[in-house]
Amino acid sequence: MTEKEQAMQEIRRRHFAAIDAGMYLDGHPDDETALQYFRTMCRQKKQAEETYEKNFGPLRMSTAGGGNKWNWIDEPWPWEVK
Predict the structure, then answer these.
(1) Is 10 part of any domain?
(2) Within-domain flag for 38
(3) Residue 2 Ramachandran class (φ > 0 left, ψ -120 to 50 alpha, else beta)
(4) Distance of CA 10 to the CA centre of its chain
(5) 10, 19, 31, 62: which sits with the fewest CB atoms below 10 Å from its CB?
(6) Domain count across the chain
(7) Residue 60: pLDDT above 90?
């Protein structure tokens, strides 16, 4: 697995964990431990996304164009990375 694929996999892991924790919190809204875990996963996902974008380019259109060119069209597209 390439470094780029590993970075994308890390984002997916953190995203899944945040969604899973959020669904748990829907049924257990007073669980402070779960809420802290959810916040941690969201923060780690954001950090993983920032690292990915710094090293490999934008993940979404809203973060494209940071340099001297419109880099949203550069290949491969983020969702094509395994």
Answers:
(1) yes
(2) yes
(3) beta
(4) 8
(5) 62
(6) 1
(7) no
